[in-house]
Amino acid sequence: MAFVQLYRKKLEENYQFLDTIFKSRAIYWGVVSKMLCGNKIYLKEIIALGVKEIHDSRVSNLRKIKSLNPEIQTVYIKPPAKRSIESIVRYADVSFNTEYYTIQMLSEEAIRQNKTHKIIIMIEMGDLREGVMGEELVEFYGAVLSLPNIEIRGIGTNLNCLSGVMPTQDKLIQLSLYKQLIEAKFNIEIPWVSGGTSVAVPLILKNARPMAVNHFRIGEALFFGKDLFTGETIEGMHNDVFKLFAEIIEITEKPDTPTGELGENVAGNTYSMEQTEDFSSTSLRAILDVGLLDMQPQYLIPEDDEITIIDASSDMLVIDITHSKKNYQIGELVSFNLKYMGALYLLNSDYIDKTIE
């Protein structure tokens, strides 16, 4: 069986790198764990780092976190669904909100559970996902202030996740101005201004974020050390906290061109003869024990850079090892570094083992 391996030392070093940066700048931050898909083995590793706050978009994952360590502050990072209100109040200390009707329900449920539920009011700032429109924010904020058992922990925004709008310095200045406006209007202090996710880390490293923006939600940068502005690895961080290992189950030299009448394959793709110039060419192909049920090939990066990924079916991945300097054998493992979505698919699969180095 193919497996994903987490490298504990690399994870620890990435965490310490980020924690040092944030603490030196008086920034609050939480780890976004949604990529781990509620895997308790890996959640324990995150908790062991000394994390005080964990964010997730699945209530079931927050429930697991609370079962492992009730003291960790859990944050539900999307607007709550009506059918999830009871469990969100029970397992999420904080939730992101954009609808007054939903916050009313949270208030009513918090009263039933004898709790104070904290919320972050999310503001639409151009990425066109969740968020209250800026011109409606003051009225919205005032209405929520009067709801019992609700504590407005702060305001925030989400950028880059849908339309690709980047969290530039101008965007974060605009967010900090919303804080000033609300504080002046209601004579209150807003504890958190949550300026976004891993995509904002390069601005923090350049000391280009407004001081008022004091909270961030970090997942991809922790697990992949990635600068999402440049696509490069942040100096001092690791990009290979996770790796995929898949076993070779066949090695055969085969033609590069399929023969017979062609139709759609299992993924809905059709091979085009125009793709092949030399119909007599062959390649040494290896088949691995992982497939589309578990991953998407475009998110895998072979550690052996002489390997080429050809394609995958539901349960098998075909690679070209013709030019590799390694003498691969049946039963040998082939390793892959992962892009974020590659890890997400694999960690969500019950058919992929999860291990720790």
Automatic annotation (TrEMBL):
Cofactor: pyridoxal 5'-phosphate
Source organism, top-level taxon: Bacteria
Alanine racemase N-terminal domain mapped to chain residues: 10-225
GO CC annotations, alphabetized: cytosol
A molecular function (GO) term: pyridoxal phosphate binding
CDD domains (UniProt xref): PLPDE_III_AR_like_1 (cd06815)
Pfam families from the UniProt entry: Ala_racemase_N (PF01168)
Keywords tagged on the record: Isomerase, Pyridoxal phosphate
Name this protein carries in UniProt: Alanine racemase
PANTHER family xrefs: ALANINE RACEMASE (PTHR30511), LYSINE RACEMASE (PTHR30511:SF3)
SUPFAM superfamilies per record: PLP-binding barrel
